[in-house]
């Protein structure tokens, strides 16, 4: 194949044999016949021309067709090879980032992934790779249920819900780590501990920054490390009597480094962990009850605070509504005097004659100046609905100057709408700021119906 490719991609030169030297000149050679000279006619010329022509044709076919096809095939095969390599050999091709090593031989964590769940999943996958086929195919659990989150989250669960926390720390460069894993971590007696909802386990290797920092804070000197943490407190004397200190997280038991093969693992688990859990369970249960009561009290206080704020907001809203209603009444009384004067003026020149039918069935006709705003029609309806227009005692002592200052930012809001009964049924609420003369349904005359919103 290589010769074929070399022949195609090599220089397009024909093999030229060495000239045939007359062997009759050699010593001891037999005498031979004289070579017959080729015919020098037209056939010889045509044959040479045809050979030259075919050589040119073959050269261009090779250059323009065969070489591009072979190049295309080679490139396609390379692309296909890389594609299949990515799909089927992704894990084999993955190169983990380089890990620096400290003076003590411990790896410095490389923070190439910030997802704590991804780190835990990767750690658990590495542990599963060390399992035997019998463990994987067994019906029971072959690994404890590692906490799916960061150590900070696991520690929060431990301190705020008074749980026992196992931490399993490994060094990927420690060859003795398999003993603890095979004899303790995968042991059914150890896995059965986690049937209790108050016991959790978190794990990581030293490439995980949290595991690296945790190992330093716990003063771990050998790996692998399996420790048990929980909240503890002591009792001290005071003038009022014995009191308990505030709970704090403590390491109550641990296994670090390897151990000999003749150690009874069941006894080790019993002495190192089950007895410790039994020793601290009563105190931890008491702490758990106190935390639960504290949480319920906080919820109750928050609910009381929320109810107080809601009540305060309602009182504030009622107060604002009362102040606004008082201001609205003052404004209506101030405007009532203007409409009394307008009602007394019977001159219809330059005015719009508008008939208004109320929801009570009352019908009234009023003359409005053409330059007045449509808002004046709404104001008249509001005054009639409240009875201020006919009540002579409904007067105000507010002067014009005081009114301009007092009602500068005040706007009336109406709980009704005015519509024309004639098609199309136009609503005046949409043109409340326009002048009456610019609204065809009321100028020079019109009929309106009051409808409650």
TrEMBL record:
Query: What organism is the protein native to?
Result: Scheffersomyces stipitis (strain ATCC 58785 / CBS 6054 / NBRC 10063 / NRRL Y-11545) (Yeast)
Where does the chain cross the membrane? 57-80
Q: Coiled-coil intervals in this record?
A: none
BP GO terms, sorted = ERAD pathway
Domain UAS stretches: 122-269
Q: Which InterPro entries match?
A: Thioredoxin-like_sf (IPR036249), UAS (IPR006577), UBX_dom (IPR001012), UBX_domain-protein (IPR050730)
An example of a Pfam family matching this protein is UBX
Which GO molecular function terms does the record list? ubiquitin binding
GO CC annotations, alphabetized: endoplasmic reticulum
Keywords for this entry?
Answer: Coiled coil, Membrane, Transmembrane, Transmembrane helix
Which positions fall inside the UBX domain? 344-452
Protein name, entry field = UBX domain-containing protein
